[in-house]
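TASK: fixed-backbone design
INPUT:
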């Protein structure tokens, strides 16, 4: 499959959120290939990418995809992990809270408990150990200077089975 095929999927998708439609339409022709040629990859440091439209960008669809993968992992491990909850932390910068809410909704659709409040980034380490949660997700933004323009990114780290010991 070529990047052009992915681009056409996004052009023809009627349910695309208005903000993503605008971002998609604003993508310069020379940047289209990078935004649509592959899926955003999940590495040892989490998933990191520019905010924007396309499968190689951080957006609600990439967050849903990786969170659904975490949910499937939790489901395969039985009912006890589902009861142990997931903590989601985020910072206060651009789209972090919206993406954290998407992650919470995705986990909820799988019947996985999420804390009632989304936590701020510094509280995550405490919450993981104190509440003995099964997994955690952190969404935080980094800024990098690329060819004289500020690019905002969100890093999503999903740590499954972080604290799996009995008290």
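OUTPUT:
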């Amino acid at each position: 499959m070529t990047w052009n095929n992915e681009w056409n999927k996004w052009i023809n998708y009627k349910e695309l959120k208005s903000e993503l439609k605008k971002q998609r339409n604003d993508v310069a022709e020379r940047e289209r290939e990078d935004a649509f040629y592959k899926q955003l990859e999940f590495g040892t440091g989490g998933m990191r990418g520019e905010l924007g439209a396309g499968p190689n960008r951080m957006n609600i669809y990439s967050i849903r995809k990786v969170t659904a993968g975490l949910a499937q992992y939790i489901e395969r491990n039985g009912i006890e992990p589902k009861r142990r909850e997931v903590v989601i932390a985020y910072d206060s910068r651009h789209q972090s809270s919206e993406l954290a809410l998407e992650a919470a909704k995705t986990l909820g659709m799988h019947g996985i408990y999420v804390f009632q409040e989304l936590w701020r980034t510094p509280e995550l380490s405490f919450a993981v150990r104190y509440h003995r949660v099964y997994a955690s997700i952190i969404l935080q933004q980094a800024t990098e200077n690329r060819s004289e323009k500020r690019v905002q990114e969100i890093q999503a780290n999903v740590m499954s089975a972080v604290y799996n010991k009995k008290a």
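COMMENT: Residues 60-76 form the longest helix (17 residues).
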